[in-house]
Amino acid sequence: MMELPELQEQIGQIKQDLDQQLPNLSAHDVLESFRVEFLGRKGRITQLFKQMGTLEPGARGEAGRLINELKDHATVCFEERDKLRQSEVRRQALVADRLDVSLPGSQHALGCLHPMTLVQREIEAIFMKMGFDVATGPEIETEYYNFEALNIPADHPARADWDTFYIEGDRLLRPHTSPVQIRVMEQSEPPVRIICPGRCYRRDTQDATHSPVFHQVELLWIEEGLSLAHLKHVLELFTQEFFGEGYEMLFSGDFFPFTEPSVQVHIKAPGATNWMEIMGAGMVDPAVLSNVGYDAEKYTGFAFGLGIERMAMLRYGIDDIRAFLTNDLRFIRQFS
Ligand code: PHE
């Protein structure tokens, strides 16, 4: 027979052991062994209930109350700690999953415009402001538009200057933008005021100033009463807009089958010693006007072909034309 005080002592001991463990009950396995030790099927509190049978019947009620009190205490302690543990697990999962919405997003590389595009657009804008329209034509041309209509017959020695990459039959990669003049004039009546930017191809060996692929802007203005003085004025306005003050311009005589007279235009930066040839130009040859059905007695006009690479080189101080084609991003990125 066990006496009540002995049981009370055991209860006291168990409560003391249990309370001692409380501060450390955070990890799952510690908490689980706490549960097993006190509340498990073979746990210490369950054992107490089993011992009740050895008490005298009169003491059993009090013993049951005391043990239940201890059991409730243990259960509350366990459940509180278990709740804390579970919320800690959730908190850690949230921390691990955390999305910091204040972080900058992953950036996609933004492209930039190629210096040739920038310069071409700028040239277009300047001439559009003066009232010129932008026209384009095919890069694969026929001999008729590239030569005959421009007053370069098959046996003419000037053809050699523009004989380039033939594709098949009478088709070739255009060596200049002048054929666009013909295409536009065929489609419209004077006055004609256009510029034609585009890619051209020539049999040039690549070096610092030559490239077999390059760009031109053609200009054509046909109307009554135009003279070389108008051409000069247009060019002066353009140079001033594009380069700024202080650039000098020089005209020298040249020959093109489609202009008469023909000139070569050079410009010089302020303080520079060298002249740079930037275009061929001239008054449109009456034969060209007749070829498109214009009245050559009534209309006159002028045209030029400007090298865009040259303009970009002068503008940005680039000394090698090959830089435009080698796709070195360090070069290209400098300009936008
Ligand atoms: N088409 C000529 C060339 O490429 C340039 C030019 C254009 C000359 C218009 C006169 C008039 O060399």
Which key phrases capture this entry?
7-stranded mixed β-sheet, binds phenylalanine, BirA Bifunctional Protein, domain 2, 336 residues, rod-shaped, alpha+beta, 2 domains
What does this structure look like?
This protein is of the alpha+beta class and 336 residues long. The chain folds into two domains: 4-96; 115-335, Bira Bifunctional Protein, Domain 2 (BirA Bifunctional Protein, domain 2), CATH 3.30.930. The protein has twelve helices and nine strands. The strands form two sheets. A seven-stranded mixed β-sheet has the order 1-4-5-9-8-7-6, with helices on both faces. Helix 1 runs parallel beside helix 4. The longest helix is centred in the N-terminal third of the chain and has 40 residues, at 57-96. The protein is rod-shaped, with a radius of gyration of 47 Å. The mean pLDDT is 92. The site of phenylalanine has 11 residues, from strand 8 and strand 9.
Number of distinct helices: 12
Q: List low-confidence stretches.
A: none
Strand order of the largest sheet: 1-4-5-9-8-7-6
CATH C-level class of the largest domain is: Alpha Beta
CATH H level, superfamily name of the largest domain? Bira Bifunctional Protein, Domain 2
Mean pLDDT: 92
Specify the overall morphology. Answer: rod-shaped
CATH fold title of the largest domain:
BirA Bifunctional Protein, domain 2
Query: What is the β-strand count?
Result: 9
Structural class of the helices, strands and pairings? alpha+beta
**Which band does the percent of strand residues land in?**
15-25%
Distance between the termini: 100 Å
Largest sheet features: 7 strands, mixed
Could you tell me the radius of gyration in angstroms? 47 Å
The appropriate CATH architecture of the largest domain is 2-Layer Sandwich
- Give the total of domains: 2
Order of helices and strands: HHHHHEEHHEHEEHEEEHEHH
Could you tell me which ligands this complex binds, including any ions or cofactors? Answer: phenylalanine
Helix content: 40-55%
